[in-house]
Each structure stands twice: as structure tokens, then as C-alpha cells.
Design brief:
The chain has 251 residues and is mainly alpha-helical. Helix 9 runs antiparallel to helix 10. The N and C termini lie close together (10 Å).
């Protein structure tokens, strides 16, 4: 446990030192300010309530898109993995959407639906569903047929079979899809906000980009990164270790 905490801490300190050296070499706070120079603007944004307001909007969009993408992507991937005929029909669609640039889907959603909250969440969800479906499809293909046959012999109802036979085997694939999903979704959310919303971290970054205020861009960017790292370390990584332990892996 100490090593598990110490190594990431040392890694972050090393990253901070690189930042300090780069800022010293640049010697221009308008290009790259020192880390401690962000303390005052961060405190002002926090005290005014602007930081928490925009952070809240971005987190709500990330949460909605994550839940929708994981739910729809898991259902689609499971169906494609279990039904070869459906997989043959939908695999070309999956390949197309996997290679469709995120920016294209975002612009199309805004053009078709309008500059609305529904369009923003739909754009992020559609960008992530193919990735989730691909990971879960591979997990569904790897399901143990012996366990499936045993569930059939004991005539387990569909819900119990999903809970006790299918989902435990899919757990590593679900954690992989969730971890990559969070990392990708929040980045796409920032682009969505940058292009067509009037609030959120992406909107604020767009605002301060127009003002050439590098310090405030870094304040909002690192504030949200800190939140996502907290989610990663306190929720996703413990969940992944628990799954690996269940399957006999090392914690």
C-alpha cells in the first residue's frame, strides 16, 4: 500500500519539476507561468463560485454521457458477441463509427439537433458507444461455454444468469471499458463545450483562449484533471483490483 501511494506521488512531483524547469527556461509567464503563480487566480475563481459552477456542469455532462455510453455500448457489445449473425451485420457499422472523427459527430449533432444540452450529451455518447461495444464484444466472445451450459442445465432465469454467470466474467472488460470511457468522455465533453455550450470547463477554456490568458486556461484545465484523477484513484482503480482479485490475479 505505501508503494502504491508513493510511486504516483513521486511521479507527479517529477512532472511538477519538469513544469518548473520549462517555465524557468521560457522565462515568460504569458507563455508558461510557474505552478505557484496559479494559486491566486485559482483562489479567486474558487471564491467567486465560477470554478465550481462550470465544474459542476462539466461533471454532469460527463456522468450522463458515461452512463448512457456504458449502458448502450454494453448491451450492443454483449448482443454482438453472443449472436454471430447480428455481429456480421453490425460489424461494418462499428468499424465506420470507430473511425469517424469525434469532431464530425459533434458538429453533426449540433447541426441536426441544435445548440442544446441534448445535442451535447448525444454527441459525446455516440462517440463512446463504439469503443465500449468493441471491448464488451470481445468479452462476450470469451465467455466460458461450460458455465453457460451449466446455467442452462439448472434452468437459471435470465436475470440470475446475467448476475451470477455472465457479468462476473465480463467484469474485467467492463472495468477496461469504464476506465478508458472516463478518460475519453471528459476530453470529448470539453470539445463539445468549447464549440457550442455557454457553460462548463470547455467554455471557460474557450473564453480565456480568446483572451490569451494561459494562466486561467491552466487553472480550469488542472482543476478538472484533479477531479478526474480523484475518480480514477478512489473509484476505478480499486474496482479494477477487486475484479482482478476475484479472477485470481494479483492485487
Amino acid at each position: 500500500m505505501p508503494g502504491r501511494i508513493a510511486v504516483p506521488a513521486i511521479s507527479l512531483v517529477a512532472l511538477g519539476l519538469i513544469w518548473i524547469v520549462a517555465a524557468a527556461v521560457t522565462a515568460d509567464p504569458q507563455i508558461l507561468p510557474q505552478p505557484w503563480a496559479l494559486a491566486r487566480p485559482f483562489a479567486q475563481a474558487l471564491q467567486s463560485g465560477e470554478l465550481l459552477y462550470h465544474l459542476g456542469w462539466t461533471l454532469s455532462r460527463v456522468l450522463w454521457a458515461f452512463v448512457l455510453a456504458m449502458s448502450l455500448g454494453t448491451a450492443l457489445g454483449l448482443a454482438m458477441g453472443r449472436l454471430p449473425v447480428l455481429d456480421r451485420w453490425l460489424d461494418p457499422w462499428l468499424v465506420i463509427f470507430l473511425n469517424l472523427p469525434a469532431l464530425v459527430l459533434i458538429v453533426l449533432c449540433y447541426l441536426w439537433i441544435g445548440l442544446t444540452e441534448a445535442a451535447a450529451i448525444a454527441a459525446v455518447t455516440l462517440n463512446k458507444i463504439p469503443n465500449v461495444a468493441t471491448v464488451i464484444r470481445e468479452g462476450a466472445r470469451a465467455l466460458d461455454p461450460g458455465l453457460d451450459a451449466m446455467a442452462g442445465v439448472y434452468r437459471m432465469p435470465w436475470r440470475r444468469r446475467m448476475r451470477h454467470v455472465v457479468l462476473p466474467q465480463l467484469a474485467p472488460f467492463l472495468t477496461a471499458a469504464a476506465r478508458s470511457g472516463v478518460a475519453v468522455i471528459w476530453k470529448i465533453v470539453l470539445v463539445v463545450e468549447f464549440l457550442g455550450r455557454s457553460n462548463g470547463i470547455g467554455f471557460q477554456i474557450h473564453l480565456y483562449f480568446q483572451l490569451f490568458d494561459v494562466g486561467m486556461v491552466l487553472v480550469y484545465a488542472f482543476s478538472f484533471i484533479a477531479v478526474m484523477l480523484t475518480v480514477e484513484w478512489l473509484v476505478l482503480q480499486p474496482w479494477e483490483r477487486r475484479v482482478r482479485r476475484w479472477r485470481g490475479g494479483t492485487a
